[in-house]
Amino acid sequence: MTPGNCENKIVLKCYIYSKP
Questions:
Q1: How far apart are the first and last CA of the chain?
Q2: What 3-state class would DSSP assign to 14?
Q3: Number of Cβ atoms within 10 Å of the Cβ of 5
Q4: Residue 6 DSSP one-character state
Q5: In this predicted structure, what is the pLDDT of residue 15?
Q6: Rounded CA separation 20/9 (Å)
Q7: Burial of 4 (0-12, 13-18, 19+ CB in 10 A)
Q8: Phi and psi (nearest 5°) for 15?
Q9: Which superkingdom does the taxonomy of this entry point to (predicted)?
Q10: Ramachandran bin of 7, using left for φ above 0, alpha for ψ from -120 to 50, beta for the remaining angles
Q11: Mean of the pLDDT values across residues 1-16?
C-alpha cells in the first residue's frame, strides 16, 4: 500500500497525494 515513497507515518497523506 505504498504508491511511491510513502512512510507509515504519513501513509494517509501519501495515499491521497498519490491518488489519480
A1: 15
A2: helix
A3: 7
A4: -
A5: 63
A6: 21
A7: exposed
A8: -60, -45
A9: Eukaryota
A10: beta
A11: 59
Q: What dihedral angle (degrees, nearest 10) is formed by the CA atoms of 8, 11, 12, 17?
A: 160
Residue type, 19: K
Measured at the CA of 4, the angle between CA 11 and CA 20, to 5 degrees, comes to: 85
Neighbours of 11 (CB within 10 A): 13
pTM (2 d.p.)? 0.12
Residue 16 grid cell: 491521497
C-alpha cell at 10: 504519513
Distance CA 7, CA 16 (A): 13
